[in-house]
Write a structure and sequence with these properties.
Layout (H helix, E strand, L loop, with lengths): L16 E2 L5 E2 L4 H9 L6 H32 L8 H49 L3 H6 L2 H43 L1 H48 L1 H6 L3 H26 L2 H25 L13 H42 L20 E8 L10 E8 L4 E6 L5 H6 L9 E6 L2 E2 L5 H7 E4 L8 E2 H5 L8 H10 L3 H5 L8 E2 L8 H13 L5 E5 L7 H14 L4 E5 L11 E6 L2 E6 L1 H7 L1 H11 L10
Parallel strand pairs: 5-12, 5-13, 8-11, 11-12
Antiparallel strand pairs: 1-2, 3-4, 3-6, 6-7, 9-10, 13-14
Helix pairs in contact: 1-10, 2-3, 2-5, 2-10, 3-5, 5-6, 5-10, 6-8, 6-9, 6-10, 9-10, 14-16, 18-19
Length: 623
């Protein structure tokens, strides 16, 4: 017996619940999901209405054609004499008119359905992208980047295609089935009961198949996230992969995810392939029953005085046409149901992003201006929401005047970066308050606060475009002169001038055509163009030599003396001249003071200095 296949997912969505085997438990109802999707239609609701209007007209034409055909056949199949050619022509022309109208209405329905579904896809991508821009770090942490990319591409495409089919078939299939049944009872109520027996049988079989397929689609789309994550990691880290000669391991990792998706799709297709024989059996059985019973009814009661039996040839032909229409409607329902099952997981994943509420937003009567760079931490505690039992910052009390230079050192994981993240409200405190310019940061307008607080990370990002384009992220209206001044302060002008195109040099994706130190200096210049009240350098000179680091700190002190500067660093030389140095460990500030004070009072700081400077007498340049 073949061992059951299992899969382990590398991450789980915080918006989903899982059973003990790691399978997703969905609480959303299908109709609720469809309703939430429709809320993103916007002005494309007009297209939806037009789609349904033309689908209704197309279906009506399609239903009337077999009914008219009954009279045409009976008119031709007269028992005595020649048929009335005028009546035959009229019935034929009426059928032709309905057929042409059906084709035109079908084309129009297809056009507006495509417009509506494409509009929905456009709105979903736009709404997700805009919504993600408002996410706090906590919200971003809940979704992996590869998962967000999958939701905005593969998932939206799945929903778009399924929606296009659904909005046409949602009206067409029930109308076709209901009116075909009604017309069947009008034509011959005796044979119409055949459909009442066959429809529930087909419906039950199709629903069982679709429900059996649903769990496979859930696993497939979850695995897509892992596949995209593997590709993203491999492409962005291709230099590391080649440097360590791990190409084969990465290929095997990719092959594992890709093969799993392949095997799941094969299982689903094998399952859904049963749809064809079920429909074939139902179709042939229905036609055989109609033909047999119809033949009996046609001959029943026939006599020399009554040449027509209980049923006419036209009626049985009409019933055969309606049987095909009913079976077509069942096939449409099955096809749409499968599409909905496939797209349901994608739709729910999209809705999870759209309904994710940011926990950081601007208050109603927000303060629109930051007065200065004065900073106060008042009994600040902080923990991440997924780990409320562990405070990463513990009762922090600090005060800094505007214009001070503050150095922050400490062991890895001591929450230095988290402490600074609270200033720009990238996270919010759990208790206590953080004040900038004498005002609690939670009372500021977010845009105004983040314009006043510039953060430069160790691994900042440069975007595709020219150097000027990247620098103007700090100030869209910055002049060329202001850009040059900022770059000179950041010690970036000299290497920029060495490029053939200087400030018009193109930066490739991720800034791969500049060195780590050059990238850091460009990011510092970008932050300086904001003319911030507070500047945070989060280990952002780690790739810069000590001499350039010294020149940079000197330039910052002379050019923006009123800006409060926080320098997080592993290198003592980067902070030794700061007005105040904070020593952090395990989420606490264990010591505070200038360089000389901490050398005499803080063993941890002295040990750090001795390990880096070797007890020698170094100047600010490290010489």
């Amino acid at each position: 017996m073949k061992k059951e296949e299992t899969v382990t997912f590398t991450h789980q969505d915080a918006n989903e619940e899982y059973d003990e085997k790691g399978n997703i438990i969905y609480k959303d109802k299908l109709f609720s999901t469809i309703h939430k999707l429709n809320q993103n239609l916007g002005h494309y609701k007009k297209d939806l209405f037009l789609t349904w209007l033309f689908v209704a007209l197309e279906t009506l034409c399609e239903i009337l054609i077999p009914f008219i055909m009954q009279y045409l056949i009976d008119e031709i199949n007269v028992q005595n004499g020649l048929p009335n050619l005028t009546n035959v022509a009229l019935w034929a022309l009426l059928m032709l008119f309905l057929a042409v109208c059906g084709v035109v209405f079908g084309i129009l329905a297809g056009y507006w359905a495509a417009s509506c579904s494409s509009g929905l896809g456009h709105n979903l991508r736009k709404n997700m992208y805009y919504h993600i821009q408002d996410f706090s770090f906590y919200n971003i942490d809940k979704f992996s980047s590869s998962s967000i990319v999958t939701r905005m591409t593969t998932d939206v495409t799945n929903v778009q295609f399924a929606y296009q089919m659904t909005i046409r078939a949602l009206l067409r299939a029930p109308m076709l089935m209901i009116f075909a049944l009604i017309m069947s009872f009008i034509s011959s109520w005796q044979l119409a009961f055949v459909f009442l027996a066959i429809i529930p049988f087909i419906g039950i079989c199709l629903i069982l198949l679709a429900n059996k397929a649903h769990p496979y689609f859930i696993k497939i789309f979850r695995k897509y996230d892992d596949l995209n994550e593997d590709v993203q990691e491999n492409v962005t880290g291709i230099r590391t992969v080649k440097a360590f000669g791990r190409q084969q391991q990465q290929i095997e990792k990719f092959e594992g995810s890709s093969s799993f998706i392949y095997r799941m799709f094969i299982k689903v297709e094998r399952l859904l392939a049963l749809n064809a024989p079920i429909m074939s059996v139902a179709s042939y059985a229905t036609m055989l029953i109609i033909c047999y019973v119809g033949a009996v009814l046609i001959t029943t009661g026939v006599s020399p005085t009554n040449p027509v039996g209980v049923m006419t040839t036209g009626q049985i032909t009409t019933l055969l046409s309606y049987s095909m229409q009913i079976l077509l409607a069942m096939m449409l329902i099955m096809m749409v149901y499968v599409m909905i099952i496939m797209a349901r997981n994608s739709a729910e994943r999209i809705i999870h992003v759209l309904e994710e509420e940011t926990d950081i937003y601007s208050p109603a009567d927000a303060v629109m201006e930051v007065k200065d760079g004065e900073v106060t931490y008042d009994h600040v505690c902080f923990h991440f929401k997924d780990n409320p039992e562990h405070d990463v910052l513990k009762d922090i009390n600090l005060h800094f005047k505007s214009g001070e230079v503050v150095g922050i050192v400490g062991s890895t994981g001591s929450s230095k970066s988290t402490l600074m993240s609270l200033l720009a409200r990238l996270y919010d405190v759990t208790s206590g308050s953080v004040q900038v310019g004498g005002v609690d940061v939670r009372k500021y307008d977010l845009t105004a606060l983040r314009e006043a607080v510039a953060v430069v990370l160790q691994k900042n990002t440069l975007f595709t475009g020219t150097i000027k384009d990247n620098l103007r992220w700090g100030n869209l209206n910055a002049t060329d002169e202001e850009i040059v001044v900022a770059c000179k302060m950041a010690q970036a002008d000299s290497f920029i001038q060495s490029f053939p195109d200087k400030y018009d040099t193109q930066i490739v994706e991720g800034g791969k055509n500049v060195s780590g130190g050059q990238k850091q200096r460009l990011c510092i210049a970008r932050a300086l163009l904001k003319k911030p009240k507070i500047l945070i350098l989060d280990d952002s000179t780690s790739a810069v030599d000590t001499h350039t680091d010294s020149l940079l700190r000197k330039a910052l002190q002379e050019a923006i003396p009123g800006t409060t500067k926080f320098i997080i660093a592993e290198r003592v030389l980067s902070v030794k001249d700061a007005d105040t140095i904070l020593v952090m460990d395990d989420g606490k500030v264990i010591a505070q003071g200038d360089h000389e004070t901490l050398l005499n009072t803080c063993p941890m700081y002295k040990e750090l200095v001795d390990s880096q400077l070797g007890g020698g007498d170094f100047d600010a340049t490290g010489e």
